[in-house]
Amino acid sequence: MKTSTDSIQVDKKQFELLFHLYWKRMFSFAVKTVEEEEDAKEIVQDVFKSLWERRKDLELQNAERYLLRSVKLRTLEYLRNRGNRWRHHQVILQNKTPYYEEDNFHYKELYNQLNTVVESLPNQCRNVYRMSREEGLTNKEIANNLLITERAVEYHISKALSVIKLKLSKSLNMMKTN
After folding, report:
1. How far from 173 is each of 91, 129, 166, 167, CA to CA, in Å?
2. CB contact at 8 A, 132 and 142
3. Would the pLDDT of 88 be above 50?
4. pTM more than 0.90
5. What are the Cα distances from residue 157, in Å, to 14, 90, 166?
6. Are 117 and 168 a contacting pair, CB within 8 Å?
C-alpha cells in the first residue's frame, strides 16, 4: 500500500483490493448500528458504488479512513431517515384513523344502499347490471348468456344506471349535509 502522502488512484484492481480488505469491517460496523443485515449490506454496497462512480474525481490519501468514515456517515443517514419515516407514520396513523373509520363507515353505508337499489330493479335489468358490473362481462357475452340482443343489454344497463344515480344522489346529498 502507498504512504499516507501518496494519492491512491482507484482502478478496477485497486477497487477489488479495497473491497476485499475493508468490506467485513464496514459491514460489521453497519450491522451493529442498524441491527439489520440486509440494510447493512445495502449501506456498504452504496459506499462502494459511490467510490466506483467517483473513482476518477477522488484523490484518496487514506482509503481505509475514507471508507470507514463513509460507511459511518451512510449509517447515520440511514438511522436519521428511518427515524423520520417512523415519526411520519405515527403522525399519519394518529391523524388519519378517525377519517379512515368515518370514510369506511360511509363506504359501507353507500355500498348497502347500492345493493338495496340494485335489488329493487326489475329482474332482467338487475341480472344484466350484475353481469356487467360485478362479473365484468361484455355486452356481447351478456347478450349470449341471456339470449337477448346487445341493444337490450345496453338498454338495461342504461336504465339501471339511471335508477342508481337518481336514488343514490339523494343519499349522497343527505350525507353531505350531515
Report:
1. 32, 24, 11, 10
2. yes
3. yes
4. no
5. 71, 45, 14
6. yes
